[in-house]
């Protein structure tokens, strides 16, 4: 993979702000040709630097309960448990961690009752889960997929 330069980072930032922006507009903003933009975006996609995705708002889809669930797994079963968790449509993220929890998942539900059912009837049936620590999201302050950073970040 070729190292990202300033133009690549600018392209990523522009696409992050509006993934539907025409290549001609990106080219105009950056003062380069449309062909340059097209080839760079193609290379970035092929190299797996980014992918085009949509990010629905769970609240607007009726998913009013968002939970972060820390799981303790039995030794040797972490990967198997993670694979089973990944199959649930309510689960949007599964990650292995060091520290208090072996796995952390993020899941969205229509109601508290649906969350309770998930924990008591779904998680309890997965061989290898020793304990679950459920935390409800009360307020969201930031949710982004942007990892493109300028050289400096100013905190105020």
TrEMBL record:
Keywords noted in UniProt: DNA-binding, Transcription, Transcription regulation
Residues of the HTH asnC-type domain: 4-64
Organism listed in the record: Brevibacillus fortis
Protein name: Lrp/AsnC family transcriptional regulator
MF annotations from Gene Ontology: sequence-specific DNA binding
Gene3D superfamilies attached to this UniProt entry: 3.30.70.920, Winged helix-like DNA-binding domain superfamily/Winged helix DNA-binding domain (1.10.10.10)
UniProt superkingdom: Bacteria
Cellular component aspect of the GO annotation: cytosol
Record Pfam families: AsnC_trans_reg, HTH_AsnC-type
Signal peptide: none
GO annotation (BP), single: response to amino acid
